[in-house]
Amino acid sequence: MKTKLHVFLKVLILLLLQVTFGQEKTISGSVNDQQGLPLPGVNVLIKGSTSGTQTDFDGNYSIRAKSGDILVFSYLGQKTVEQVVGSQNTINVQLEEDASQLEEVIVVGYGTQSKRTLTDNISKLTSDDISEVPNPNLQNALVAKAAGVQVTQTNGKVEGGINIRVRGAASVSGGTQPLYVLDGIPLIDPTGGRTDIGNGAPTNPLLTLSANEIESIDILKDASSAAIYGARGANGVVLITTKRGKQGKAKFSLNVSQGFSEPTNTRKWLNSAQYIELFTEAGRNSPFFTPEEGQAEAEATFDFLAGDTDWRSGEVDTNWSDIAFQNGYQSDADFSMSGADAKTAYFFSGAYNNTTGIIRGNELERANARVNLSHQLTTKFKAGMNMSFSRTEIDRIANDNAFSTPLQAIAQSPLSPARLDDGTPNPGTLYGNFLLDAENAFFKTIIRRTVGKAYGEYKFLPSLSLNSDFSYDLFSQTEDNFRGQNALFQSTNGEAFASDLGSESYTFSNYATFDKLFNDRHNINVVAGTEFIKYNRRITSVTSQQFPSDDLSTVSGGAEVTAGTGVNLKSSFLSYFARATYDLDGKYLLKASIRRDGSSRFGSNVRFGTFPAFSGGWIISEEDFLKSSETLSFLKLRASWGKLGNADIGGDYPSLFLFSGVSYNQRPGLAPAQPGNSNLTWEQSEQSDFGVEFGFLDNRISGELDYYKKDTKDLLFSVPLVPSSGASSINQNIGTLAGQGIEFVLNTKNIQTDNFSWSTNFNISKNTNELKSLPNENADIVTGRHINRVGESVAAFYLREYAGVDPANGDALYYLNTENPDGSINRDTTNDPDEAQRVVAGNPFPELTAGLTNTLLFDNFDFTFTFQGEWGASIYNGGGIYQSVNADYFDNQSIDQLNRWQQPGDITNIPQARLYAGNGTAHSTRFLGDADFIRLRNISLGYSLPNTVIDKMGLSKLRVYLTAINLLTITNYPFEDPEARSDVDGQNTPGETFYSSPPAKTVTVGVNINF
């Protein structure tokens, strides 16, 4: 009986256990981080099944599960936790940070890599670095943040071009700008480098991007990192990654700001009384008149300049600089929405910028929108798209070399009223009054840009995937320039010019990625693929004249069509590339890459080129003899070598024999326009890099030290031909250039407490370049005030050497610098500039650049400031021969010309004032200035409302801030500003200024709101 009862009880217990463990029940709980804060969007899955859920905004979850099931809690940046379901109905979990997932990730082109195991030299900026500098020019965020990267805004115009040089000059005649890659889409200059489009001045190539859509910017500086882009990587590569949705609760962000601008620095000019004093004296000293005749000449000119006003009584004292410049305004508003679940990630953003520039008549209005989507269709297949649209409308002004630009108004006499009594612009000024154009003409540019990418990723195996990307970049620029009958220098009843530039490129990329860890020791990543890029460009323009009314301002309103152009341009790239990285035990690192590029731009004999690269690293701190060190946190040695190319060597057809249509006696014909060269190819750069990365005291002190050497050969030159050849020159690859430099980066966490933290980033770099060989047996190549000479830097300044003033008679003096019979240099002086020999007098590029950024956090306050410094560059003031020449002609003079020589024995650097005499007006080092400076590039102070306040408002963040750009500049530079450059032909005349605007000093107040 006992036996039967015992069996019965066993069966009953088993049945009860089966019911207990087989029955589903509701499990609920919360998930927090290490600080006890709730984590929304945590994935909660039943292991071995597809059943799952996510935590809500408060970190709570609820899921149906059976006893014995295993719940898996996973969240980006946190360690995954598993919990077994038992008899309990509540399971609370606390997740810990996963340091391995939090390692800094670097975008390397066709993939990513951990900063720790990187063997290349790459500088990274995050969205925080970018958003702290509210400015329509995105590249300003790079200033002083990356060692070896010089960022210079051409001038203070709202659309002004940006020059970025990565590790100095790498070309003489070819392109100097880096390759920009946006989400894997290579961007090119839509104008193709043509200066016959628009007003002849370049615009910013990234003008259509806004900061709120950017997640990070990675700058590939050495050959090992940039070689994956082969023939386009010699000037460095800037990889721009836009934002993606992140797992968790949907986020909404709003930013609104208002900025106020003024010029950083303007020069002082003579007022009316000073002008009369100096030019009267100059007239009396003129060698072409007696003192009385010279004074009469000056006074007659004063009568003309003053018009109907009385200059003797000081009736008019016009400050033309104040009229040319104005207070600027900048309004910004942007928003974004983002989020993700286990399968779908999304990011939507929009931005609006309205900027009134510091130069009269110069304005910009821009609107941007972006959509980034990705979806995991199956466990193996993922697809997505990125799409952006922007519209930028610019009210442009003339380039620096045009009389109609407001910036040349400073040449006008203060005796001339800007306007007549009836309020209309005064047409009787010394030079054309720019106000006639400002009120009777316009130059409007509208840029519409659409950049899109569709992509798919298929995982054949967990370690093997195939990516296929198709991207499209459409750039449309229309320009309308109308000059009414009262516009400056207008000889007809109005003139209209309209142009249309349509530029498109499409890129088709396919690449496979293999990524696997073997035996927990051998980590291998291999990428291999192909890429095809096609560029199309179409440019048309038309000009008409004779308008019945200024109200009819389009081309069709003119009675006569006087000119028209039409150009179609095409080019293409075909590429094959591969890259392999290997690390052993996470401390022995190797990488190799190769790319083979073919381009239609190059000669038929050299269409393809091969660009290999190798690098290696050793994380010494992982070795047993250092691993337990309490002082040394990290130490890595790395070295790299590679070859790169520069394909930007003169448009789409630099190697072809070209003909152009001509008219002869009203008959059509053909004429040779360019001789062909079937051997023309890209400039090739070979670069070696040696670096060390270090960290001390748990990485509270960390940094990098690099030395690099960069040699460029096959430099592009336009080599002169004999006249009988039928062409003036031919494009050839002749010449070599050597560059080298040192870069140092230091990051410190100075103070870290619960309520206060202070961190510092410092970087400094030194770069030099030297020409090693040139065409025609190393013959000097002189262009204007520049020379390319073996043994000197690229485009060195080549000028007479100014020797000051003869104290006996006030003559301007120049050093002869002729060669004596014994080979020495004759340092005697002469007052005849034609007798003085020109010498290499300066370098247009800085040899030393530095940046210092400090970030301080105190309770709810944040404070950041960045200093920028440059040393070793010179700038030539091309307008100096008119504006600072001791009253040689009637252009208004800079205030320093009052310190002129007046009597024997005077010691000064300003010659005697002599009207029309050319005393010191020759191009010389008199107008060359050292451009060393230290600038407070940006400073920002913010305050975030406490959580106890914003929680009641339903917000996750509310921050108000005050930001200033270019607030302070320390310099001895004698002209407008050490960052102002001419926007005309800057490629051939680097380091020159010509009535160029200084950059803007901007103070911005704003608010960030996150939901």
UniProtKB/TrEMBL annotation:
Membrane topology: Multi-pass membrane protein
Keyword Glycosyltransferase: no
Localization terms from the record: Cell outer membrane
Domain of life from the UniProt record: Bacteria
Biased composition (Polar residues): 985-996
Entry's Gene Ontology cellular component terms: cell outer membrane
Signal sequence annotation: 1-22
Main location as per UniProt: membrane
Similarity comment: family membership: Belongs to the TonB-dependent receptor family.
Pfam families for the chain: CarbopepD_reg_2, Plug
Entry-linked NCBIfam families: OMP_RagA_SusC (TIGR04056), SusC_RagA_signa (TIGR04057)
InterPro entries given in the database record: Beta-barrel_TonB_sf, CarboxyPept-like_regulatory, Plug_dom, Plug_dom_sf, TonB-dep_OMP_SusC/RagA, TonB-dep_OMP_SusC/RagA_CS, TonB-dep_rcpt-like
Region (Disordered): 978-997
Domain TonB-dependent receptor plug stretches: 115-237
Protein name as it appears in the record: TonB-linked outer membrane protein, SusC/RagA family
Keywords associated with the record: Cell outer membrane, Membrane, Signal, Transmembrane, Transmembrane beta strand, Transport
